[in-house]
Amino acid sequence: MEYGDPVEVGGLKIQPGDLIHGDRHGIINVPKDLATQLPPVAAKVAEQKQQVIELSRNPGASFDELGRALRELLEFNMDHPIDGENQWKQR
Fold this sequence. Notes:
Elements: E1 7-9, E2 12-14, E3 19-23, E4 26-30, H1 32-35, H2 38-57, H3 63-79
Antiparallel strand pairs: 1-2, 3-4
């Protein structure tokens, strides 16, 4: 056993001190210069998700309203630099 050496997990090279995030979708190496941006972005995503949940529970909500709320949530996620299919793969 060793520690403090670089490793490779799922094709991602990880150096000691790297900030990584993993979930059911995979693992990414988070650039440290972007790490400070994560809390406000995560808060905004959580707020938008909660709005969609509340709207979906409202018996008077229309499909158009729910569709618009879902599109806004997805558009925010796809346009933000910490989201999307190819997030940080080149770094």
